[in-house]
Amino acid sequence: MQDKVSKIIEVRNRIEKDASLRGIPIVKPEVGQLLTVLTRAAKAKRVLEIGTAVGYSTLWFAEAICDLDGQIITIEKDEERAKEAKENFYSAGINEMVVLYNNDAAEILSGLNMEFDCIFLDAAKGKYIEYLPFCLKLLNQGGLLLADNVFFRGMVCAEAEPPKRYKTLVRKLRLFLEEIRNHNQLITTVLDLGDGLAISVRR
Ligand SMILES: C[S@@+](CC[C@H](N)C(=O)[O-])C[C@H]1O[C@@H](n2cnc3c(N)ncnc32)[C@H](O)[C@@H]1O
Fold first, then answer.
1. For the chain, what is the mean pLDDT?
2. Fewest CB within a 10 Å sphere: which of 55, 89, 117, 182?
3. Which of 35, 76, 86 to mutate to test the pocket of ligand 1 (most atoms within 8 A of CB)?
4. Once rounded to an integer, what is the mean pLDDT over residues 50-67?
5. pTM above 0.85, yes or no
6. Domain 2-202 classified CATH 3.40.50.150?
């Protein structure tokens, strides 16, 4: 067991070191740590991740569930990143625990027919609001819905108008936050961690 976790941490540290040099967007380590803690505390076994990049956050989830016979389904539309993520999953010894779809999230979400204990949104930020109905359909009672970058570089909470090119994205993220905060099936808090992490539990 300890060997399994050490291997996961080793690959994760390697990705963390070179991600910023290569311009690969990944969650902040403190967000990653919280993903592991929350997933473990919720006793989650099946995780859905939207936005894999090269698998860094997947490895935080893997640490939480690797001794629970769990499964992670992760979606990445970029072919190169998906290929690299797969290689990382092999190196970390978690390839049998992970199913990676190299596709657009909307296409996969509409076809998924299983329940999840945890869903992590970390792909196109303007699409979170579109993905929400699918997440509610796929999330177990007591399951976690997590969404990263909900402050979008501080623009979502700022009084100043966002730059023109981000206006729609910021408006959609505000709508998403309003929806998850007021939804009668969700209990939500938003943490000022990293670029803003929304945490919801399904009633
Ligand atoms: C912030 S990165 C994910 C980082 C990853 N969760 C981590 O922390 O290691 C967002 C990823 O979502 C992917 N993405 C963006 N839009 C997508 C879509 N519609 N469907 C699937 N993947 C998408 C991007 O290619 C990018 O690699």
1. 96
2. 182
3. 76
4. 97
5. yes
6. yes
